[in-house]
Amino acid sequence: MTKTSRALMPDYLRLFALFGIVVVNVQYMGYSAFSGFPQAVGATLIDKVTIWLVYGLALLKSYGLFSFMFGVGLGFLMSSAERRGHNIGPLYRNRMIGLLLLGLLHGCLFFPGDILVIYAVTGSIVYFFRFWSIRRLVIVGSILVTLQVLVNTPLLLIPDDGLEDLIALEALTFTSGTFWEVAAFRSIGFAVVLGTGLVFQGISALGWFCLGLAAVKAGLIDQSNHRFWKKARQICLIPGLALSLLGAGLIQWTIAPSLGIVLTLASAPIATIGYLGLIAKLARSPGKLMSKLLAAGGSSLSIYLGQSLTLSTLFTGYGLGLWGALDRSLAVALAILVTLVLIIALSAWRSYFKLGPFEWVLRSITYAGLKPDSAK
Questions:
Q1: pTM above 0.85, yes or no
Q2: Per-position pLDDT tens, the chain of length 376
């Protein structure tokens, strides 16, 4: 494989995951974040179908893809540090500090469902696994991803009754509050949900980190035509998505919501592996336009934060005041449109600059304290 081919799969993966993440996140940016996904039932048939597709095709799967890429990024950072003669310890420590700072600002000011703080915390753990064998990484990663189902199912089955007053306050704040009033509400919510998020998302994230690092060590990221990815498509894609869509249907139409929750959680890792196989299939030499889009995908941190920055402004009272006013289908269409605009903007940006704006911030923190010539 050529160097260009080796770099393709991560960029395709990031681009793919960005759309999955935003269609899920917009369900909690534009509507009450306290309803929980089992009760997020649309008022119209189109809305119900929209939410069914979002939960069936994207919920937990796009998060798994992003987490997998984090492990891949650790593998790349290790290789880069070794080539340049850097000590991986200070680099990685600084990177986690950078993610933590960006995540805290993101969670408090724009979206309490931030994943960067969780990545910084659990990513600090996976650092100590960096010398593990491929087999050990795969075993531990698989156990952690499976453990997610066992731990998270009881959490999601806990009833959320008695939140009417809080939901009413949320609606009032988000529709008529100033930026700082909304930020204060988000900050309190972020502080409350962070502990649960570390359990609900952290276990799974750590598992995918291990699997991503194992994929780098095994050379799978460099070989998008490897037979492993073909097997992943054949064995996992259709069954994983079928079970996930079934689970989402059971949740959405309340036939058996508890069973739907279990199916959605249990099928997410299977569907994610299937998606990885599909993305590997797509990771072929692109044309000129696709090359620009993939370069923007390399600035996934800027796009991820840009999604929250833009959508949180559009939905709240200090922006366009769309909170709770759009049909679910329109909200998803808006989220996709915002992501496309950000990708186009980042494509233009990357024509002049090597890094996206937030990638530059994170890199500056990562290489803080190193000699200028060693950070090139």
A1: yes
A2: 334 444 578 888 988 999 999 999 999 999 887 766 544 555 688 888 899 999 999 999 999 999 999 889 888 888 777 777 778 888 899 999 999 999 999 999 999 999 999 999 999 999 999 899 999 999 999 999 999 888 877 766 666 666 778 888 999 999 999 999 999 999 998 998 888 888 888 999 999 999 999 999 999 998 888 999 999 999 999 999 999 999 999 888 776 677 888 899 899 999 999 999 999 998 877 777 777 777 777 889 999 999 999 999 999 999 999 998 999 999 999 999 999 999 999 988 988 898 999 999 999 998 887 654 444 3
Measure the CA–CA gap between 17 and 11, rounded to whole angstroms: 10
Nearest to 12 by CA among 294, 232, 229, 278: 294
What is the distance between the alpha carbons of residues 362 and 365, in angstroms, rounded to a whole number?
A: 5
Here the tokens at position 14 are: 């990031």
Structure tokens, 356: 């996206």
Residue located via tokens 């559009």: 314
